[in-house]
Design brief:
Elements lengths: L1 H10 L4 E5 L3 E6 L3 E7 L2 E4 L5 E4 L1 H4 L9 E4 L2 E2 L2 E2 L2 H16 L7 E6 L5 H12 L5 E6 H8 L10 E6 L4 E7 L2 E8 L3 H16 L1 E2 L2 H11 L10 E8 L5 E7 H24 L3 H10 L1 E4 L8 H9 L3 E3 L6 H11 L1 H4 L4 E3 L4
Parallel strand pairs: 1-9, 9-10, 11-17, 17-18
Antiparallel strand pairs: 1-2, 2-3, 4-5, 4-6, 7-8, 10-19, 11-12, 12-13, 14-15, 15-16
Helix pairs in contact: 3-4, 5-11, 6-7, 6-8
């Protein structure tokens, strides 16, 4: 019945917000909420180019496909690297969630702060490809701030740190605009790749992305904590070509992730150094807000607070804060119109 109500809502042309991320794609429907949260990945038949699986179904195939099938991630470092695949992914996820009943909706789509004009245009093109009547863009840090419930239109310094799969966006917002922003193309997927490289170089063992991601979630951390776990990792011995097991301490994984964590902290430090003193005072009092999938690394908030000496707050649902903020802009369009930019239809 919920699906039927959703289709009826969209048949009337209801508005849609999209967070097209390197790791995950989320879709919010006005009046409903988040209806899609799936990995940004497709399985493609190399022979005829047909799409075999999208999202969760495609992610299950990581490390298990024959040479005739290619797994494609259409975004890298927060921007689209394969526009046709990105368009197909968005349209497929929309259709799966709500059927094909949606009728020329207004769409708000998030864009990283540090993208080039060409990169931004590719994101907008993917949104227009859904048949939208209007497309608006919103900078991810602004969307995250709104989703976190911050008073973005007040003359107060709001700092948000959005650690996504491919980018980390840091911004200070006051009076409805970004005072300064710093974007680095590093995020949760870099942590995963770092663990793959660590096991290859330190233990002569090969693991795939899925195993590395599970390892990161199971024992990964940025700061020491009580009762740290151990984990046994199974992969392939690079020298002998046979199965191999390695027992890892949480400290081993933390040391492996340290270069990524330190680079994120340095980006935050740079952003603070560019912030007017009055707004820094606000941040020192109220803290910065940490969000995004990469922010769920254990003890990352504590590590940042220790290094920079500012309070760090976690949003209620780091994975959906950005798309929820974009959705709030749809729900209260006139109130938030000034933070949105209209995107003309491509020729």
């Amino acid at each position: 019945m919920a699906g039927l109500n959703l289709r009826r809502t969209l048949f009337g042309g209801s508005d849609i917000a999209i967070d097209l991320g390197t790791a995950n794609t989320l879709i919010y429907v006005k009046g409903i909420g988040v209806v899609v949260d799936e990995p940004t990945i497709l399985a493609i038949n190399k022979g005829d180019g047909s799409i075999l699986a999208v999202g969760n179904e495609a992610k299950k195939l990581i490390g298990r496909v024959p040479d005739s099938i290619e797994l494609v991630k259409p975004l890298r470092d927060g921007v689209i690297s394969e526009i046709e695949m990105a368009e197909e992914l968005v349209k497929t996820l929309l259709s799966r969630a709500i059927g094909r009943a949606y009728s020329k909706p207004r769409i708000v789509i998030c864009v990283p702060n540090g993208v080039t004009s060409v990169e931004q245009r590719s994101i907008e093109t993917a949104a227009h490809a859904t048949g939208a009547s209007e497309v608006f863009t919103i900078e991810e840090p602004m969307a995250a701030s709104i989703g976190a419930g911050l008073q973005v239109f007040e003359p107060v310094g709001n700092m948000v740190i959005d650690i996504g799969g491919g980018t980390t966006e840091i911004a200070v917002i006051s009076m409805g605009d970004v005072v300064n922003a710093n974007s680095v193309r590093i995020g949760g997927e870099d942590m995963t790749e770092r663990l793959i490289e660590y096991l290859r170089s330190e233990h002569a063992m090969l693991i795939d992305e899925g195993i590395a991601e599970s390892l990161k979630h199971a024992v990964g951390s940025a700061f020491q904590f009580d009762k740290e776990p151990q984990v046994t990792v199974t992969g392939r011995d690079i020298v002998k070509g046979v199965p191999k097991q390695v027992l890892l301490e949480a400290s081993d994984v933390r040391d492996a992730l340290a270069p990524i964590v330190n680079e994120i902290i340095e980006a935050i430090r740079i952003s603070l150094s560019r912030t007017p003193p009055a707004l820094v005072s606000d941040i020192d009092k109220d803290g910065a807000w940490l969000t995004g999938g990469g922010s769920i690394l254990k003890q990352l908030d504590r590590k940042i607070a220790e290094e920079l000496g500012i309070p760090i707050n976690m949003t209620d649902d780091p994975l959906s804060t950005v798309v929820v903020g974009s959705g709030i802009c749809l729900e209260r369009f006139e109130d938030f119109r000034t933070v949105l930019k209209s995107s003309p239809k491509p020729n």
